[in-house]
Amino acid sequence: MDGTIYLEDKMIEGAVETLNYLIKDEKHLLFVTNKTTQSKNEYAKFLYDNGISISSNQILTATDNCIKFLKNERKGKKFYAIAEEVFINEIVESGLVFTEKPAEIDIIIISLDRNYSKIKFEIAKNALLNGAEFLAANIDNTCPVINGEIVDAGIVISDLENSTNRKLKQHFGKPSDFMILAINEKLKFKKEEYLLIGDRIETDILMGNKMEIDTVLVNSGVFNNLKNPSNLATYNIKTIINILK
Known about the structure:
Blueprint: E1 6-7, E2 10-11, H1 15-24, E3 31-33, H2 40-49, E4 59-61, H3 62-73, E5 78-82, H4 85-93, E6 97-98, E7 107-110, H5 118-129, E8 133-136, E9 142-145, E10 148-151, H6 153-164, E11 170-171, H7 177-186, E12 195-198, H8 201-211, E13 214-218, E14 235-237
Parallel strand pairs: 3-4, 5-6, 5-7, 7-8, 8-11, 12-13, 13-14
Antiparallel strand pairs: 1-2, 9-10
Helix pairs in contact: 5-6
């Protein structure tokens, strides 16, 4: 979604036209995002407000996968998240308890946080040193914005790993098996009939390759290093509208 059909609160040129063409042509669309700063209902409303009529059931987020795991496997545990309020509230609603006291924290969860600070890093670091479980909603190093890219979960994860000698145990976004399973459960046709379109090689394109489906890399989001042939996309285009040309 980010970098493929919009940047921040602006649709990428041609995205609305392309998506509505596909909807009118009765293609089956799924929207998948690692971004945790909005709920799936908010994402659906954003698209609707921009002229794209889809349901929230067509949206899969890293938050959804994280909540499903925590609700089933870690209910009642105390957690701390380097993340934004929407994400934290959804975790609390799933049955966990938020705390900022390192000695009480059972689980650390990392995601995009546009209000990231040294204080938050120190809380997470100390909790990990105390033995807290190390999880993440997503592992993107950066998030695309209109004027470039901002720090995302992957950089924070790396800094925590280096500071604590702890390794991330699990994440729930692209290209994890959790996300692939969630996608497969939503497919209406054989997976070989689908095309995965994304802007990031190490998440979007890698996931498509793991799923053994064709991929399209767009050049409208993050900067990609195209030197590793094992991660290359089936097709490379400038923006999503080029799939119609």
